[in-house]
UniProtKB/TrEMBL annotation, chain A:
It comes from the Bacteria. This is DUF3558 domain-containing protein.
UniProtKB/TrEMBL annotation, chain B:
Residues 29-53 are annotated as: Disordered. The keyword Transit peptide does not apply. The lineage of its organism: Bacteria, Pseudomonadati, Acidobacteriota, Terriglobia, Terriglobales. TPR repeats lie at residues 563-596, 597-630, 631-664, 665-698. Residues 117-200 form the Cytochrome c-552/4 domain. This is Tetratricopeptide repeat protein. It holds the Pfam family TPR_8. InterPro entries: Cyt_c-552/4 (IPR023155), Multihaem_cyt_sf (IPR036280), TPR-like_helical_dom_sf (IPR011990), TPR_rpt (IPR019734), Ycf3 (IPR050498). The keyword Zinc does not apply. Residues 1-26 form the signal peptide. SUPFAM superfamilies: Multiheme cytochromes (SSF48695), TPR-like (SSF48452). It comes from Acidicapsa dinghuensis. Keywords: Repeat, Signal, TPR repeat.
Length: 177, 772
């Protein structure tokens, strides 16, 4: 009983401290905050992008989609890691398949990431190089893009992009499980 | 206000953390080739350093220490301010028991990478990459569970240090487990228990488990004076002095079960569950109580001394470059055991194949369709294959299947047995292969027949709900635990009726199947759209029965000898509290082997628990006549002497057992009790303290030491023991939670009763009340 009481009072205390925060957040439709990305922290994103990256997390209560964007500003360009997660309650596999259609190259299956994951090239912007992973953990479909605007990027080379997207997908899917 | 120089350091440190190299998660061999091995080193001759080389190593050490200290300071400066010290500044890693040398957190970069080690240890690297240890954190099977704790409303990521102390120690020790983490997780999450987590442990704190180790500053070499040099060093230094490399990374305890105990023993502490100490699992203690430890005189059978490493790290011929090999072999870093799920998920086909081979090797289990009993008849037709009998159509039968945990050094199933599934599949088929009876089938949705005899358990919450998702912090009780301890046997009873029109032979098959993981847990992880996970047949036995007359037949080469078959039945009946039948079974052993002292001891121990002390005395006398130095018989004689008030003989017996088996927890406990009763407080304390060295959780030791210390005026120690006794003692209210669960699950309720029958006849007759 004492334990239950203690748990209850701690829970109430958390609610009491959380309520003003929720009210403040409620002033804006979108909640922006750095360092709160639930699928990857800034240090990990920085490791993947090859330098200090800053992140922003966007989520709304109205939308099943949320995203994190990490940006690393280099001297002559920008490296970006973007994560988008959407919940598909009805037919998650169909949701995954639909997202996969965004691939502009033949998607390559990525073994042992989530329920199912593919990697494909990101060629939708000729001014940048990039790679994309699309995957699914239960009813959550995620899309990860690593993009560099640096010409002949010495860090995010073609092979580095392949290994970094895999590492990013492992981080994201791991946190989605 | 941060000093500018420190700020620069912290940025540099963060950058260095961020820039840790990454490598492909599925690549199972290191990318680089091994450096040339010098001629001296290959002969195992330590090189003689020139003064210049000694000087160079001295410079290397000084530089490495300087870099390590600066990196660590900078790392702490970056991590500490936002770290959640939920359990106080002095306990940054609680609820885990892990610690690290030095002040504060340790930078992840201090740990040489697996790829670095893999340059010279390619065989070990490739095995490790597919093994459970390298996948201790990243698998969906683990992440789903630990994420629930991280997302728990009243707990959060700080509590996950409990799990990750074993599953991701670098993340814990580097301060990565906090809400606003400043630690790059990619590499450590992917590598889990990397080479330098095990090989950097410098001491074992106790055998308490929950990662009770002290991590040293990772070092792959010592200098000529034995001082550790932190971090990675040029391979040339290691190759010139492999003996110094060994001294840095190969502590003696790595070969001992106590090292494995650090993580293969766990309890749920109050700091995790806000409730009390609950034993989670302890493969170490199970081994310690098994015949393989040679520390326990009370085992039913004896065996050669074998450690955890002896089974799970067997030496194999090397197939890749492996500088640690001796005579072309190296200790396996696959740690083959029961996990088929991880290699199945990752597509590690070699690991999966070898795991299945391992599970089927070693004569670990014996399945014996031991006896039949016709309904309405008292006589047991046993042992099958040796007895003559007749069968007729429409006979209602009971089949006795005895499953012996013959050569596993721990229980079947060990550890988190709420997640795994081992069960008996029993079929009766007619000559055309039509099923007459089937227990232990898988349903179309992959779920196991709920009435199957399974070797699992059912942890429950304080609401009496099954903890289906491995939320261990909600466990308050265990509704049942049907695991079979090492060396023991279980009797599974099946009841079926032969069809009235049956003509040809009847085939009975009993199998022990194993699936990693339970289907409902797999569904929790992936949803229901996942492939079927492998079911491995661990052991099986088939017998063909004739309608009409059945005569004795030649035994199968894998069958136990008849005396052992009876003995196993006796052990199983003893565990089911069927004392009269157990004595009958052990008496059959005596008939077959009247020189076997343990058969008499088995009769005696059954009669002791049955409280038939006079006949127990007769049996134990006979055992001691046959083998006066039987520690097992002496132990039970000690109990009987106590009962008779023969204290001197009681002490003599227990002392002799302790002399022969100094790590016998039972003998220490009983001798301590005897001394306590004789008011010999000093000797009683000595025994209970020795007992705590063997088993730090022994309740009798806590209870008695709390009293004894108080009498000695050692109030602090007395209070500590009292607190531990209260914390570890089973909550008297806990059975209520189990009962709530069992009340709403009649099929499981039946499984929780030691004596139960699996039957279809219940449905047929609607009157028999012992069906399952």
């Amino acid at each position: 009983m004492a334990i239950e009481r203690a748990e209850r009072s701690r829970f109430l205390l958390r609610i009491a401290t959380a309520v003003p925060g929720i009210l403040l957040l409620g002033l804006s439709a979108d909640a922006f905050a750095a360092n709160t990305c639930p699928w990857m922290n800034e240090a990990s994103a920085s490791g993947l992008l090859g330098g200090n990256a800053k992140g922003a997390y966007i989520a709304t209560s109205q939308s099943p989609t949320a995203s994190c964007t990490f940006t690393q500003q280099a001297a002559d360009g920008t490296r970006t890691l973007r994560i988008v997660v959407t919940r598909f309650e009805d037919d998650p596999h169909a949701g995954f398949t639909k997202r996969k259609m965004a691939c502009q190259s033949e998607p390559t299956p990525l073994k042992a990431i989530g329920n199912e994951t593919v990697v494909c090239a990101l060629n939708d912007d000729s001014s940048s190089e990039g790679i994309r992973a699309i995957g699914r953990v239960r009813d959550q479909v995620f899309e990860i893009m690593i993009i560099t605007s640096l010409a002949d990027d010495p860090i995010l080379t073609e092979s580095a992009l392949k290994s970094q997207i895999k590492a990013a997908a492992e981080q994201v899917s791991g946190n989605l499980f | 206000m941060k000093k500018p120089a420190s700020a620069v350091c912290s940025v540099l440190a963060l950058t260095s953390i961020c820039l840790l190299p990454l490598f492909s998660q599925q690549q199972t061999t290191p990318a680089t080739s091994a450096p040339e091995y010098g001629s001296n080193a290959s002969k195992g001759v330590p090189a003689e350093d020139t003064p210049a080389q000694r000087e160079e190593l001295g410079r290397l050490k000084a530089k490495a220490e300087e870099i390590n200290a600066a990196d660590r300071a900078a790392h702490n400066e970056a991590v500490t301010p936002s770290y959640n010290f939920h359990y106080g500044k002095a306990n940054p890693f609680v609820p885990g028991n892990i610690t690290v040398q030095g002040e504060g957190f340790i930078q992840p970069g201090a740990f040489p990478s697996a790829q670095y080690c893999g340059t010279c240890h390619q065989d070990a690297y490739s095995q490790w990459r597919q093994a459970l240890h390298s996948n201790s954190f990243r698998t969906p099977f683990y992440r789903t569970s630990v994420n629930l704790l991280i997302r728990d409303q009243t707990r959060g990521i700080a509590f996950a240090r409990f799990c990750d102390s074993c599953h991701n120690p670098i993340a814990v020790l580097s301060g990565g487990l906090t809400e606003d983490s400043k630690v790059n997780r990619s590499q450590m999450d992917s590598d889990g228990l990397t080479c330098m987590t095990c090989h950097s442990v410098v001491s074992l704190d106790s055998t308490n488990g929950n990662a009770s180790v002290e991590m040293g500053i990772p070092s792959v070499i010592v200098d000529e004076k034995g001082n550790r040099i932190p971090g990675e060093v040029p391979f040339a230094e290691i190759l010139r002095h492999p003996e110094r490399h060994s001294k840095a990374v190969m502590h003696d305890f790595l070969h001992k079960p106590e090292f494995c105990a650090a993580c293969h023993k766990a309890n749920l502490p109050a700091t995790l569950n806000d409730y009390k100490f609950i034993r989670a699992f302890t493969a170490y203690d199970e081994w310690q109580q098994s015949k393989f430890s040679q520390r326990n005189p009370l085992t039913f059978y004896t065996g050669d001394f074998t450690t955890c490493q002896g089974c799970h790290m067997k030496r194999n011929p090397v197939t890749l470059t492996e500088y640690g090999a001796k005579n072309g072999t190296f200790a396996s870093h696959r740690w083959l055991a029961g996990n088929t799920a991880v290699p199945f998920y990752y597509g590690f086909d070699d690991q999966l194949k070898k795991t299945i081979e391992f599970l089927r090797s070693g004569n670990y289990l014996n399945v014996d369709i031991f006896a039949l009993k016709k309904q309405g008849e008292d006589q047991l037709i046993a042992p099958l294959g040796r007895a003559s009998y007749t069968l007729a159509p429409n006979d209602a039968m009971e089949a006795y299947v005895v499953i012996q945990n013959k050569n596993i050094g721990h229980s079947l199933i060990p550890e988190v047995r709420d997640l795994y599934e081992a069960w008996t599949k029993f079929t009766v088929k007619d000559a055309s292969g039509n099923e007459i009876y089937h227990s232990g089938f898988l349903k179309p949705d992959g779920m196991l027949d709920p009435r199957a005899h399974s070797f699992t358990n059912r942890p429950v919450t304080d609401e009496g709900d099954f903890v289906d998702s491995h939320k261990v912090w909600t466990i308050h009780s265990v509704a049942y635990d049907n695991s079979v301890q090492a060396g023991r046997s279980v009797l599974v009873r099946y009841q079926f009726r032969l069809p009235a029109d049956i003509r040809g032979p009847v085939t009975l098959t009993a199998k022990v199947n194993y699936r990693h993981l339970r289907q409902s847990y797999l569904n929790n992880i992936f949803g229901t759209d996942h492939p079927a996970y492998p079911v491995v047949e661990l052991s099986s036995r088939t017998r063909v029965l004739q309608i009409g007359e059945n005569r004795p037949e030649a035994p199968d080469p894998a069958d136990n000898p008849d005396w052992m078959r009876w003995n196993n039945l006796g052990i199983a009946l003893l565990d089911q509290f069927q004392y009269a039948e157990a004595v009958e079974a052990f008496t059959e052993v005596i008939k077959l082997r009247n020189d076997y002292a343990d058969a008499y001891t088995n009769v005696a121990l059954t009669e002791i628990v049955w409280e038939k002390y006079d006949s127990a005395r007769m049996a134990i006398r006979k055992a001691l006549m046959l083998n006066p130095n039987s520690a097992r018989a002496l132990y039970y004689d000690g109990l009987l002497q106590r009962r008779a008030g023969n204290t001197e003989q009681e002490i003599a017996d227990f002392k002799k057992v302790v002399e022969m088996f100094p790590q016998s927890r039972d003998a220490r406990r009983e001798l301590g009790i005897t001394y306590y009763q004789q008011q010999d407080e000093h000797d009683a304390m000595e025994q209970f303290e020795a007992l705590q060295q063997i088993d730090p959780d022994d309740l009798t030791a806590h209870y008695n030491l709390s009293i004894l210390y108080r009498r000695m005026g050692m109030t602090k120690q007395a209070a500590d023991q009292q607190a531990m006794f209260i914390d570890k003692k089973v909550d008297p209210g806990a059975p209520t939670y189990s009962l709530n669960y069992l009340r709403s699950h009649p099929e499981i309720s039946t499984e929780s009763i030691p004596w139960h029958m699996h039957s279809d006849i219940l449905n047929e007759a609607k009157g028999l009340d012992h069906g399952n």
